[in-house]
Amino acid sequence: xxxxxxxxxxxxxxxxxxxxxxxxxxxxxxxxxxxxxxxxxxxxxxxxxxxxxxxxxxxxxxxxxxxxxxxxxxxxxxxxxxxxxxxxxxxxxxxxxxxxxxxxxxxxxxxxxxxxxxxxxxxxxxxxxxxxxxxxxxxxxxxxxxxxxxxxxxxxxxxxxxxxxxxxxxxxxxxxxxxxxxxxxxxxxxxxxxxxxxxxxxxxxxxxxx
Length: 210
Known about the structure:
The chain contains four helices and 13 strands. The chain is α+β, with helices and mostly antiparallel strands. It has two domains: 52-84; 85-166 and 174-209, Mannose-Binding Protein A, Chain A (Roll). The strands form three sheets. Strands 4, 5, 6, 7, 8, 9, 10, 11 and 12 form a nine-stranded mixed beta sheet that branches. A two-stranded antiparallel sheet has the order 1-2. Strands 3-13 form a two-stranded antiparallel sheet. One of its GO terms (cellular component) is membrane.
C-alpha cells in the first residue's frame, strides 16, 4: 500500500525498560513516466523512419541537381548564342519591339521609348515593314520614328538612316503636321504631333553567350 508507515519496536536496554520506536517510511517503487522513456529512446539514436526520410530527401535532391544540369546542357547545345528581349517585347530578326496598349502624342511616345532604352520604330527594310503590318490591326495608325526636320526642311528618321522605300503623303492644307504615323499601307501619313496614337518602340536584342 502506497505511503504505508511501518513501526518497528527495537529493544535498546532491558534495565531501563524503555522502548524506542524508529519510524521508517517506505515508498513503493513507481512506474517510470512516459516522457522519461521517450527521452531515453531519443537518446539511443534516430529511428528507422527518420533514416528512411533522410534517404528519400537525398535522393530527391540528387534528381533535382541532375535535372538542372541536363537543362543547362540542353540549352548550351541548342543555342550557343541566345537572343533575349525584355518581358512584354516581341523578338524578330535580332530586334526587339514593344507595341503599346494606349495612345499618346508623338513626343510622349518617344519619351516612353527612351525610358525603355529604345526609340520609336525606325524601319530598316521592306521585310520589317511587312512584319510590323502583320502584327498590328489594319485600321490602326501608330507613331514611328519619322519626323519633319524644320532646319533641313525634310522628313528624316530619328537615326538619320532608315528605309527610304516609303514616302510621306503631304497634305497641302495641313502644313503643321510634322510627325508621321504608319498604317498598313505603302504611305506614311503626316499628323499633328499633339495627336494621340499608339506607338512602337524598337531596340537591339540582348545577346547571351552560353
